[in-house]
């Protein structure tokens, strides 16, 4: 395992480098002039030329990329073309909100999917298993933003148990922070939990058919205890793969959910920057999201080796 880590880290670094080039190139070919956006349609040609020079837009693209990437490596994402404010501190603040949302949504998904998916497999072809499979199928068909709207209508508008939106930092008021996070986390977690439940059911069903599970049951263990004691670790390998994919899906889904619940996360910042045509801010946000996806995949690769001992000795 230790020998594989440097290779995987090297792959991660190369992937981040390639991703940064792709993101920069994509933003560079988009139509529009950031200087024109910043100054307005009445700006004089002389002022536009001076602003482009201030932004560094008059330099060759290779030089612009190296300058931008050099700043990113030092935590400097540049200054907004529209507001003139530093982008880096805003990214850090917004990323914290998004991580809380994605982390709590994934926690909800796992807490729901693992026991219900296992029960759906153990109760295969029984009423309980069929009911869980049917409910999960319905959950898969519901978009996260629609789930959020329905939750707001029920728990915020009608019952008035929870706030309909807004954000309170945890260091200001922990109680309001938790109350404000419940509905957004549920809107993400319920949908992803439904998807994960089906994968857990499939993985557990496959594990239940293995010889070592039959041997455990022949010794007197009931299906669920035998599965928990001997089978869940083997069933976890494909589930971890899906978890990695779902984390990336949650990052994308958070963009819309943050709008529904008025959360100041990366998704809201991305949409605001796109609408204002603040391309440098969009460039930084997209890079952060892409790097987050690559890091998730890197962690999933390491978890494979931790979960499955066979991979530690494979050539």
TrEMBL record:
Keywords: Cell membrane, Membrane, Transmembrane, Transmembrane helix, Transport
Start and end residues of each ABC transmembrane type-1 domain: 95-304
Protein name as it appears in the record: ABC dipeptide/oligopeptide transporter permease
InterPro entries, A to Z: BPD_transp_1_N (IPR045621), MetI-like (IPR000515), MetI-like_sf (IPR035906)
Main subcellular location: membrane
Membrane topology: Multi-pass membrane protein
UniProt xrefs under PANTHER family: DIPEPTIDE TRANSPORT SYSTEM PERMEASE PROTEIN DPPB-RELATED
Upper classification of the organism: Bacteria, Bacillati, Actinomycetota, Actinomycetes, Pseudonocardiales
């Amino acid at each position: 395992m230790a020998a594989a880590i440097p290779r995987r880290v090297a792959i991660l670094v190369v992937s981040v480098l390639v991703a940064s080039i792709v993101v920069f190139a994509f933003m560079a070919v988009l139509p529009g002039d950031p200087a024109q956006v910043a100054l307005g349609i009445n700006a004089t040609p002389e002022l536009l030329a001076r602003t482009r020079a201030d932004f560094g837009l008059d330099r060759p693209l290779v030089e612009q990329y190296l300058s931008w990437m050099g700043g990113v490596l030092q935590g400097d994402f540049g200054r907004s073309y529209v507001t003139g404010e530093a982008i880096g501190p805003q990214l850090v603040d917004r990323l914290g909100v998004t991580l809380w949302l994605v982390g709590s949504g994934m926690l909800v998904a796992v807490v729901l999917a693992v026991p219900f998916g296992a029960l759906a497999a153990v109760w295969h072809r029984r009423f309980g298993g069929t009911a869980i499979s049917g409910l999960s199928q319905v959950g898969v068909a519901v978009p996260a933003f629609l789930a959020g709207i329905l939750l707001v209508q029920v728990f915020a508008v009608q019952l008035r148990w929870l706030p309909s939106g807004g954000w309170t930092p945890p260091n200001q008021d922990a109680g309001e922070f938790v109350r404000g996070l419940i509905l957004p986390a549920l809107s993400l977690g319920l949908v992803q939990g439904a998807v994960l439940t089906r994968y857990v059911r499939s993985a557990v069903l496959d594990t239940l058919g293995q010889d070592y599970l039959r041997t455990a049951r022949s010794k007197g263990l009931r299906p669920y205890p035998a599965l928990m004691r001997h089978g869940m670790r083997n069933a976890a390998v494909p589930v971890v793969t899906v978890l990695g994919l779902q984390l990336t899906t949650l990052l994308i889904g958070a963009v819309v959910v943050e709008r529904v619940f008025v959360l100041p996360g990366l998704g809201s910042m991305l949409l605001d920057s796109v609408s204002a045509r603040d391309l440098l801010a969009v460039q930084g946000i997209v890079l952060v999201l892409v790097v987050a996806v690559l890091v998730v995949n890197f962690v999933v690769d390491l978890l494979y080796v931790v979960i499955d001992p066979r991979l530690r000795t494979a050539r």
